[in-house]
Amino acid sequence: MPQYLIKFNDEWVPEHSAEEIRAKSRAATAVVDQMREAGVFVYSNGALDASTVVCSVESQDGEPIFTDGPFVETKEHLGGFCVIDVPDDDTARDWAGRLAVGLDWPQELHRFPASPFTDPTTTEGN
After folding, report:
1. Is the N end or the C end of the chain the one with fewer CB atoms within 10 Å?
2. CATH number, domain at 76?
């Protein structure tokens, strides 16, 4: 089955009080629990923003060069994500929709391409 990334950018989320954030967390946890029960949950994490960036790294003459903050100037920062393993786009859309409704902020859905590191004749690792 293909894996999908459901994500949101921190900038898409309006300011919330601490209690509102706790309520959003409970709502997202409920959807993730449903994903676990359905056997489609792979991994998720949230509460990311510009303050959580550790560094950027690029290769220069075969050596890693580390710099503070994002590599490119951007106003968008990943806010959170969830990886699911479902049979098709429609099922992935359904789960992304559940998160969008539960959190009441936009989500973006991406399908991971087949991995070049696994044997395409098996479903292992996909």
Report:
1. N
2. 3.30.70.1060
Read off the tokens for 96: 């992304």
What pLDDT score does 104 carry? 87
Q: What is the pTM of this model?
A: 0.76
Q: Domain of 99?
A: 3-111
Residue type, 107: Q
What tokens does 97 get?
């929709």
Nearest Cα residue to 94 out of 22, 40, 23? 40
* H or E element in which residue 9 lies: strand 3-9
Look at the block and give the residue holding tokens 């951007």.
74
Nearest alpha-carbon partner for 84 in 74, 98, 101, 71: 98
pLDDT tens track for 76-115: 678 889 999 999 999 999 999 999 999 888 899 999 987 6
Spatial distance between the Cα atoms of 14 and 43, rounded to a whole number of angstroms: 25
